[in-house]
Amino acid sequence: MQNLKRVVCCLLTSLLCSFNIQSQTIPKLGVVLNINQDSLVYASGFRLLGESVGNMISPSLSITQFESNLYKIKSAKCKINACNQLFPANLKLVGPLVNDAKTLGYLDTVCYRAKRSGISILILGSGKARELPPGYNNQKAKEEFIILCRKMAKVAKKHRITIVLENLNSIETNFLNTLKEAAEVVTKVDHRSFRLNADIYHMMKENESAQSIVDAGKIIVYCEVAEKENRTLPGMLGDNFKPYFNALKSIGFKGPIMIEGGSNELNKDIPAAYQYLTKQLTEVYSEK
Fold it and tell me: Which of 27, 83, 96, 128 fits a 20 to 30 Å CA distance from 278?
């Protein structure tokens, strides 16, 4: 009888521990990949898929092309939750060639199409569009960019879309290269429709610590990740993301965390990436 009680107690303890881990909000995982890979992504365990503005909802796409994409989005197994590459390279966001009316008109169409598609997040990386011209004052650029972003936020709000500003490493652009810098802009824009994307890959490329995530806090609503060396899928080289995940946990981040990386063997590496990240997140969120 005593042995039976001990077994029951052990089982209840195990179940309780399992419940405590699961009851904590472990961020949902997704992959940024062409929508044609939807079935593979879903079969691998992911339920979110990120695409690009250019491929799916750009104003440059005809109505017929957009309607075809809309059908793909609605038919996908994964939820298409976000589109990156918000602005094309020829639509400048900083410097003397900025045209507010043109920029905001383009954004209005993108937001309209995003809303119709059920896409709620647009990622403002757009390294070439925000590249500073030679000799252009960085502080001046920030001040002008903040004003433009406030206007963008109003357009996004009209369509119930959230724009998330992404930190990009210095190989990809020369403006807002750290999460800390991007967070300063988002804080000054001060609008609920304009938030922050903590891209862990870019943070690692700039040797930026996880403390920047803690410092940014609640303005982070989106996160991307890939391995540092060659922007490979998590698990291919074995990068440890747990310090960054611990920082996300500390600010109460609820997700999503999206993989934006590459592989020559997607059929093998996409499922492995899901298992790899799930393991690291479970370890982090089970810690007291």
Answer: 83
| Token pair in block for residue 241 | 């993301």
Q: Which residues contact 51 (CB under 8 A, 6 or more apart)?
A: 32, 33, 34, 35, 80, 82, 83, 84
Task: Tell me: pLDDT of 9 over 70.
Answer: no
- Classify burial at 236, counting beta carbons within 10 Å of its beta carbon; exposed 0-12, middle 13-18, buried 19 or more: buried
Residue owning tokens 């690692």: 204
Confidence of residue 2 (pLDDT cuts 50, 70, 90): very low
Q: What is the mean pLDDT of residues 121-129?
A: 98
Q: How far apart are CA 183 and CA 166, in angstroms?
A: 9
pLDDT for 30 beyond 90: yes
Domains and CATH numbers, the chain: 28-286 (3.20.20.150)
For 112, residues 6+ apart whose C-beta sits below 8 A from its C-beta are: 159
How far apart, in whole angstroms, are the C-alpha atoms of residue 70 and residue 66?
A: 6
Q: How far is CA 117 from CA 74, 98, 166, in A?
A: 7, 28, 22
Indicate yes or no: pTM above 0.70: yes
Residues 86 and 54: beta-carbon distance below 8 Å:
no
